């Protein structure tokens, strides 16, 4: 099994103790921001439960099947690479699987990730399964946004909350992964304190710097917004909008409070203060609306063309 992540330790001990005392619920909801390692936790638990010795020994037949991703008593359902939803067909398979008996006579485990990617029909079918849980089956739902889940589904699961990891542990872990010149605390603050997200941001930090530079060129009218939007569209638009929203929120907070402590992006306080002065509050809220709506469309629809949305946003930044 993969080594336990430092901030998983205490939750892991609790869950393992419940399992060993036969107190673990038949359905778990693992929730917290993306980048907390919830899926890894779920897989570690699955491996432990399926192992013939109950300890993820890494040597028994079950462990070998698990490593080869061919254990018949583990099903993982995720969104497809190009799809943004979990389809009703996927849920149908998931439910059918849960009602079978296990191949090796022990438990069977089904993991759904992320659960909020189900539509209403899929959620209703899943609810029926949760109301009459099959014996010797553990269902794990992973959710980055549990509030987006059907409330009844939430109430049928035992909740494992990953949203408030020990900050000392996450900071120490991240510092260990980074070079000494990188600011681990800043990266965590920019990633909802999620260490794996912060680590991935560290790899993207150059891209983020270029994006910020391009906003500067728009605000100072040194570049054409259509060309800038074309550059943006070469990157991942969802990621770009997440960064832009974080800067806009900082500008709005600074405009309202005139206090630089209200700025989260501590690496660009001065420039954000200057930016904020170039826009009135109404224009800032309009930018936030445009960006939030573009983000919603890009995350919710498969065939959306991001270029047009990004152009509208670039023009609004240019028009201060
Ligand atoms: Zn084993």
Layout of helices and strands, plus pairs?
Elements: H1 9-20, E1 27-31, H2 38-50, H3 61-67, E2 74-78, H4 88-99, E3 108-113, H5 120-131, E4 137-143, H6 151-155, E5 158-161, H7 167-177, H8 184-189, H9 195-219, H10 225-234, H11 237-257, H12 269-278, H13 281-300, H14 306-318
Parallel strand pairs: 1-4, 1-5, 2-3, 3-4
Helix pairs in contact: 4-5, 7-9, 9-14, 10-14, 11-12, 11-13, 13-14
The chain binds zinc ion.
Notable characteristics:
320 residues, alpha/beta, Rossmann fold, Zinc Finger, Delta Prime, domain 3, 5-stranded parallel sheet, 5 strands, binds zinc ion
Summarize the structure.
With 320 residues, the protein is an alpha/beta fold.
Architecture overview:
- With 320 residues, this protein is α/β, with parallel strands linked by helices.
- Helices cover 55% and strands 8% of the residues.
- The chain contains 14 helices and 5 strands.
- Helix 4 links the parallel strand 2 and strand 3.
- Helix 7 (167-177) crosses helix 9 (195-219), helix 10 packs across helix 14 (306-318) and helix 11 runs antiparallel to helix 13 (281-300).
- It is elongated.
- The model has no long low-confidence stretch (mean pLDDT 93).
Regions with little confidence, pLDDT below 50 for 5+ residues: none
The chain-level structural class is: alpha/beta
**Small ligands present:** zinc ion
Oligomer: single chain
């Amino acid at each position: 099994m993969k080594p336990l992540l430092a901030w998983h330790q205490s939750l892991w001990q609790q869950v393992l103790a419940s399992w060993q005392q036969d107190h673990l619920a038949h359905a778990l909801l693992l929730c917290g921001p993306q980048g907390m390692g919830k899926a890894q936790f779920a897989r570690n638990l699955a491996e432990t439960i399926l192992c013939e010795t109950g300890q993820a020994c890494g040597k028994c037949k079950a462990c070998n099947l698990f490593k080869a991703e061919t254990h018949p008593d583990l099903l993982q359902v995720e969104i497809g690479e190009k799809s943004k939803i979990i389809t009703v067909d996927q849920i149908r398979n998931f439910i059918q699987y849960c009602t079978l008996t296990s191949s090796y006579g022990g438990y069977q485990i089904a993991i759904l990730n992320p659960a909020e990617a189900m539509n209403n029909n899929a959620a209703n079918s899943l609810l029926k399964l949760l109301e009459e849980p099959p014996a010797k089956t553990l269902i794990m739902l992973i959710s980055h946004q549990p509030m987006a889940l059907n409330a009844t589904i939430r109430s049928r699961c035992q909740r494992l909350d990953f949203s408030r990891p020990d900050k000392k542990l996450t900071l120490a872990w991240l510092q260990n992964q980074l070079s000494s010149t990188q600011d681990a605390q800043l990266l965590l603050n920019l990633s909802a304190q999620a260490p794996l997200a912060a680590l991935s941001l560290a790899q993207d930090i150059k891209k983020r710097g270029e994006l910020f530079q391009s906003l500067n060129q728009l605000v100072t009218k040194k570049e054409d917004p259509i060309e800038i939007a074309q550059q943006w569209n070469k990157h991942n638009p969802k990621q770009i909008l997440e960064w832009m929203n974080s800067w806009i929120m900082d500008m709005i907070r600074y405009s309202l409070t005139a206090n630089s402590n209200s700025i989260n992006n501590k690496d660009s306080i001065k420039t954000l203060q200057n930016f904020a002065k170039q826009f009135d509050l109404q224009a800032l809220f309009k930018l936030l609306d445009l960006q939030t709506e573009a983000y919603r469309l890009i995350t919710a629809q498969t065939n959306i063309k991001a270029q047009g949305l990004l152009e509208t946003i670039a023009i609004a930044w240019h028009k201060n």
